[in-house]
Write a structure and sequence with these properties.
The structure is a homopentamer. By secondary structure, the first copy, chain A, is mainly α. Chain A has helices spanning about 10-15, 20-40, 55-100, 110-140, 145-150, 155-160, 165-185, 190-215, 220-245, 250-270, 285-300, and strands spanning about 45, 50. Chain A has a two-stranded antiparallel ribbon. In chain A, helix 3 (about 55-100) runs parallel beside helix 11 (about 285-300), helix 7 packs antiparallel against helix 8 (about 190-215) and helix 9 (about 220-245) runs antiparallel to helix 10 (about 250-270). The longest helix of chain A is centred in the N-terminal third of the chain and has 48 residues, at about 55-100. Chains A, B, C, D, E: It comes from Duganella fentianensis. Chains A, B, C, D, E: One of its GO terms (molecular function) is chloride channel activity. Chains A, B, C, D, E: This is Bestrophin.
């Protein structure tokens, strides 16, 4: 995610970082060069004048507007739903921590030993909660489980889970087991175990929602049709304009192609919001945010620092 | 669902698999041939000049934009809701498994016999959970119950349920009975039985939602009106263009008709997302995904393999 | 709801059943006749030439696009929400039946008599659940309570409820009373009574939602403004076209008026989705579907048949 | 809310009640008079010809379409959300009544005295539920608390609450206290008290949602910008049309201005849906509907009549 | 938020406060001055005539409509979701207060001492609930914790929490601890503790949702592309208009630029709805509203006054 102060006036035209231009300059250059050639030849190919008025572009514009408008909304909704799911994960993690520390109680007959066991179990579950956020990030970005998670989980479990296809789901199951365990030992009333289980279900929903966005792109035929239409539109455009605006054709084609290709390229980026391109969601920052909030709630003092943005870009 | 790496530049124009062209080439060819004929006759039928300017197309374009825009969103929403319901089913299955293994407890007085009975019951319910996903797929695709489900359910039950009109609902009911049974035997506290029941209700909602999408298409009159408008638009278009762009008429008509017919055909495919056409949802993969995740949670080692995509297409 | 296989190519133009044409042929005929007259008189009224170019139609088209686009979405949303609410009712009914049969338990000291009483109560409540779906249909379609419901409810209750303004709500209340009764007799744990009550609340929500859609149309002034604009647009259109496309005016006016009137008429039908017009929701089929599913879950063998579509139309 | 049978054909043009015309006739008349003047002067101001083609209107039309389309959807969503919240309130009230009468139980040792006390408490809470709906209506319409609520609440409470800024919230709190009281006396199991509390929370959400819609209009700058654009568009329009359509200019300007001003005026009405203008929500009818349904559930026989529509308009 | 009575007719053009003009007058002036220069030079730069017809603006208008329409909806959704979250916070706070005062009970054996302790605890939690709303406001506006919160929280806690990165989350955790404490002392049944915990979770969701909106703007590349397109459009516009409308060019350019820049500027304001610009959400008023309602429910008499709007603007 790009984080920078809102530019003013002319700055909008000068900045490169955050602009989508680097992604599309190649096809943009091709389009402009073609427009220059068409202009120089006055819209003729080997003495055959290509008589293309602006009418076809109005007609195609109709389909294009539907395509780009729809694609744009659909991509943004995927992006925003991804963000919402991570927000929901953060909320569920906080709720889980609040519940884990507030509701289990050792009865007076339990003595200090049970109290220590409970404290140990609570810490255990809290760390697993943090590990879940990092594990989800690694799963979505197809990164390997590394020391990042090992520092939060018991060694043998981390090893065992690395081999699974769904390690994040295993972490949730382990927390559930610990809850069942606390209840079996009489430390937790059933209705509150139920409430804690609901926080786990909310985390499970965040997991399932992210997997859904990651695994199911916008239907492929759709993308193909959209891209073909945009390309054909931009490549034919000079023939339609050269008769009416002459030498300014390449300029106008450049501006129009820039907006269409740009809109398309941003859509490509945010359609799959869990990657590492500049406009993707900052999963690293989000999962560290969850860790920081969790550690503050645990009363810890060694809080890890938030990873800072690099070149205005938060990952 | 078509799964292939995002094409680049010229590749977009070369690929056939994933393009909607195979579905529409016939009507597209008819349209282009008509456009060629109209162009050759300079827009006249037997010496009667058809004087159709582009004005009618601008007016019809208005209705067409509303139609196609709406139809397109409605179809995609059906597709995405179908996917969302299957995601919700996956989440509910995981939650159910977590709850089934974490919360029932045999009291100390129960002894190893009850423990074995509980373990048996848990396995039973877990397998039924997996069977539900496969049964829902078979129901939505109108396939027969085969050995796929028989391997997961007790033989007599599978036989009995095959004759029902709603076998998937029967599976849920059976899991509910088992939960009631565990509670009656004192293995499960009522609030947690309640929580498990809620997972069953979530699965029931996924079932009902999928049935809704399958049984209730977009109103039929709507489709008829839309198709008629698209056809009339594309077939009349050459008469409107031939005077202004002459020999290029078939090219422009071809491009415009390709986008409109294509948009329409993709809508037709994803409107009913549970079928077997290339852009439909990969229900087989989704239900095996649920099975794999469930078996991992059960600690099994014989995990079935995910069905691989065939010719870039996941079913 | 019209149920027929998707037509192909030319079939789209030949079918009448399912087309909206029967609803609008009168006003369409008037419009075309007017267009023919205008064309014959070359756009003049008693020697006064009506000089109306296409410009006003472009300007009015703007408002029309907003109106029709909005109206169309709003109507479809009402239709789809109605369907969703009935789907939710079906799901809640299934959940309720699952819960009713799985969770109440007669303790060992209860003996066969209590068991029989419980079985009786369960059957009672299950039948009331089925009756609710039929009662809701009758309420929404303003039909009288007939033998259809009498076969499901105790005679005196049915009589008594017929006189109420909200009979469906009374059925829910009666089920609630029975649940309270089962709990008072010790057959049902409070958390599970709570869960059953939640299914009742879901059915209550479906009831309230359907009443809302039925009682609150799209604001009336909106419909008036929309209809006036569509009529004025279509009636003035020939004056705008006759100078540029001459004898083809009536054809184009016919096509444009067909799409606009058609779009409007479909909107009128699905805006109130609980009626008996062809594109309305098949409430009879839906409520029988709920009955069939419920009877299967009760283990009954005398399952009523689904009412078949008549002339492609399911009611 | 205007309730009248759907008009047919010519009736659409004759009816006044339900048309938005009475709200806008003044500015419409000004616009038409201006258009007549411009037409008579052939678009010149004191010999200075105002050469304004239709091009600026196409450009401005773009912004106008976005504005009106957005504003229109946003207003309707506010209207529909208001209706939804009142529907949700009705559902919650019914659920609450069902729960209040079905679940509290006096144990056998309680005797007839406790039974009478419970019946008294139930009636008390049921009346408070009805009072809540009326109180919410009065709060939203800024009407004074009158005898309408006094007949439902104990006199001293009604007096005391009148002085509060949030009387409706106080009613909910009082019902909550009564629930706590019933639970403390052993008449109500905790899980069912929890379920009743949830109905109270749903009513609280309806209250909060209505307050939100009432207190937070669409951003003011938005309205200003929209109105300015609409006015400028309509007032300049005659200059753009007079050269091409001559004497018909006032007619076309009138039609276009009628649609734009009308769309805008309906938006103004339904944006704040709790008022007393004709297209607003019929809060009086809705709250009496809640009262009728509640009294039927209480088994009362003196059911108040629904307030009838006056001049087709339900308040 | 700007609160003023709806203007009438001419007033719309005279008011400045609430208009977006002050934000955009600079770039608007630049655009108009450029338009005047272009008009004076008849669209030529140093004898080189810039032959730019209106065609490019129609083409660019397509992209612009998609951009502005989308951006506009996305910004308003952020604004409205922010408002909705604060509404949800208000509802949750009221529910929490109702629950805190209605459900905890000291058993008869508890005596007056426990009753006093409970009353103390309740007051404690109620004040913390109020403090949460203020703390959230300070966090969202990046203001320092001041005496405003100190008056509501025990001094040592306020001090301690000031140093945290997420102080609002800490307040929720503290309320949770107190609930656990009340339950451990036998004052609160577990199912009702669960219900109270759910109110805390709802407050936690409001917190997480607000953080999400604050931390995740609309993708930056999107804003850049949009702004560049709007600027280029408005700056090139005079060249496209000067040939057809001559001296009126600056007027039309001014009007068009005013709507586009205005639309854009309002979007900028409401995109980040928690700031202090005129169209932002009135967080101060909202949090005082929560405080007033809470204090009324606590039966307090010293109710703080609502901060009045300053110059029509509520903060």
């Amino acid at each position: 995610m790009i984080i920078r102060p809102r530019p003013k006036g002319i700055e909008y035209f000068l900045l490169l970082r955050g602009s989508i231009l680097p992604n599309i300059w190649r096809k943009l250059a091709v389009t402009i060069v073609m427009a220059v050639l068409v202009t120089l030849m006055h819209g003729a190919l080997y003495h055959v004048k290509i008589r293309l008025t602006t009418i076809p572009f109005t007609l195609m514009g109709l389909a294009l507007a539907i395509f780009l408008g729809f694609r744009n909304s659909a991509s943004y909704e995927r992006y925003w739903e991804g963000r919402r799911l991570w927000g929901s994960l953060g909320t569920a993690s906080r709720n889980l921590l609040r519940q884990l520390y507030a509701y289990p109680q050792v009865s007076d007959s339990g003595g200090p030993q049970q109290r220590a066991q409970l404290a140990q179990l609570q810490k255990h579950m809290a760390y697993a909660t943090i590990a879940f956020a990092h594990a989800l990030r690694h799963q979505l970005r197809e990164e390997s489980w590394g020391e990042e998670i090992a520092r939060l989980l018991p060694a043998e479990r981390a090893l065992c889970w690395q081999r699974l296809q769904h390690p994040a789901a295993a972490i949730l199951q382990a927390i559930g087991s610990d809850v069942g365990c606390a209840m079996a030992r009489g430390w937790l009333a059933a209705p509150l175990a139920q409430e804690i289980d609901r926080s786990l279900s909310q985390m499970s929903e965040a997991l399932g929602g992210c997997e859904r966005i990651k695994n199911t792109p916008i239907p492929f035929s759709y993308s193909v049709l959209l891209h073909r239409t945009v390309y054909v539109y931009c490549y034919l455009l000079p023939f339609g304009l050269v008769d009416s605006i002459g030498l300014l054709t390449p300029v106008v084609v450049g501006v129009v192609a820039y907006t269409f290709f740009g809109l398309d390229a941003i859509g490509d980026e945010i359609e799959e919001p869990f990657g590492l391109t500049p406009n993707d969601l900052p999963l690293t920052a989000l999962s560290y945010g969850i860790e920081i909030s969790a550690r503050e709630m645990m009363g810890e003092t060694a809080i890890p620092a938030m990873p800072p943005p690099v070149d205005y870009c938060l990952q």
